[in-house]
Design brief:
Radius of gyration: 18 Å
Strand order of the largest sheet: 5-4-1-6-7-8
Largest sheet: 6 strands, parallel
Number of domains: 2
CATH class of the largest domain: Alpha Beta
CATH architecture of the largest domain: 3-Layer(aba) Sandwich
Order of helices and strands: EEHHHHEHEHEHEHEEH
Number of helices: 9
Oligomer: single chain
Strand content: 5-15%
């Protein structure tokens, strides 16, 4: 019996191959910034700041706060310069990346069923994007109207995946102990193993398996079956 369930987003509720998505995202962001700042140093600074925010978590500061500090140091420009550009990019260009993703019909059924069972529900995506980018991807998945109890973003999280503390932090926000949570995700290293380390039940979303049913892995239809068994 569980009281809450965490859902990864990309590759789980939303068909999105991040190995394909991220290079296009970086390329369009770099092109958008080019008239205002040299694009290659910008991209290098962005990646360095994100890595710094992931590598050095601080329970007193959010991922966004650590990113901003590192990014300003790398670019020698304040966020007052960058924020209008970022806001325009996410409003004008980021929506075009929707074409690289595909909604999954089973995703809405899975989330709605969890809600109907009285479980607290969270979008547990890696918080290395700002809220606006995560909200858009929820829309692409057809889940923008679901009343999630927590959605992880750069602005509201202090840890990222694959830190086990990330999962404890989400559980804290849900006001449910980790041992009473389930985690559904498609990445063993980012989603499954660290969630297990803090005592969560886990379901690995994966294809294949030679037609064999395993109770803790499979597609979203099997994830629904797994969730039913837990409840």
């Amino acid at each position: 019996m569980i009281r809450a369930v965490l859902f990864d987003l990309d590759g789980t509720l939303l068909g999105n191959d991040m190995d394909r998505f991220m290079p296009v995202y970086f390329d369009r962001l770099r092109g958008f910034v080019a008239p205002h700042h040299p694009p290659e140093p910008f991209l290098s600074a962005l990646l360095s700041a994100v890595r710094e925010a992931i590598r050095r978590p601080d329970p007193r500061r959010t991922v966004w706060e650590r990113f901003v500090e590192a990014f300003e140091q790398e670019t020698k420009r304040p966020m007052d310069f960058w924020m209008p550009l970022f806001d325009r990019f996410y409003a004008e260009v980021f929506p075009s990346l929707r074409a690289l993703t595909e909604p999954r019909v089973e995703a809405r059924l899975l989330v709605e069923r969890a809600r109907a069972w009285g479980l607290r529900i969270a979008i547990a995506t890696n918080p290395v994007f700002p809220e606006i980018a995560i909200r858009q991807r929820l829309e692409w998945a057809g889940l923008e109207d679901i009343p999630f109890d927590w959605i992880t973003t750069m602005e509201n999280m202090r840890f990222t995946k694959p830190w086990p503390e990330y999962y404890r932090e989400v559980a804290d926000h849900l006001q449910v102990p980790p041992e009473a949570c389930g985690m559904i995700g498609n990445d063993r290293k980012q989603d499954i193993e660290p969630a297990q380390q803090v005592g969560m039940q886990t379901f690995w979303v994966c294809e294949g398996g030679n037609g064999m049913f395993r109770k803790n892995q499979g597609d979203l239809r099997q994830a629904l079956r797994w969730l039913e068994d837990l409840n």
